Amino acid sequence: MGAPGNVHEVVTQLVDGRLQRVYKNIWPSLRVFWCAVAQQHAKATYVVFEKQRFTFGQIFERSVKAAGLFKAVYGIQKGKLVVLDPERADRLEPVAQKLSAENGVNGILVFESHEGTGEWKGMQSWNSALANYKGDSSEILKSNLQILPEDNATILFTSASIPPPNDGYQYQVLVSGRRAILRGGGNILPAKPEDPAKGILISVPFFHVTGSTSLMVSGAPSPSRSLLTVAADAGFIGRDENRYYA
Fold it and tell me: Which InterPro entries match (predicted)?
């Protein structure tokens, strides 16, 4: 499994002045990983939500535009940006402007704003912000960010339904579940377009690190579809299978 040339080949390398055993052929960062799988599976379905379908290519283009928006409009390097759903936006509206001023928040964006009032003082709809951004997002891909192994790859927060809100960090170390397949004596064969689609049901609330990164990241190389549902129902997927795999 760790033999020369294999995905999980291990070598000794100097990292931050210390000799460490590292994976030689695995993606060095989440950014490199995402760019690679998005290009490889550009036309394959990646996310399924209700009647909506999004390919790897579509999600990738949107992610690059979002990165451009964050950097050019909100000045996000290591700054602050708050993203909310309509329910939290309703609660935060009376103090949103004050909180932004006191805490140096660059902006507050609301996802799925059509499910609420649509407008909140001191906030902006995510879809509107993205649609209004006309900058050149391709510059993001050309920049050399010098991402290190110990840098944070993602920072996620719970919705505060279980106070206090907790943050979850994911490092750049990407070791997929395919290692378990190899250990069990199985083989990992390249996916073919005619192969049946694989899917991962995100059965936990989307703010959980397990649902929003671990499963979606580990299933991307397959490629697997990430199936999102409004409410969990053990028999739902089975009863309406064609809705998700068509």
Answer: ANL_N_sf
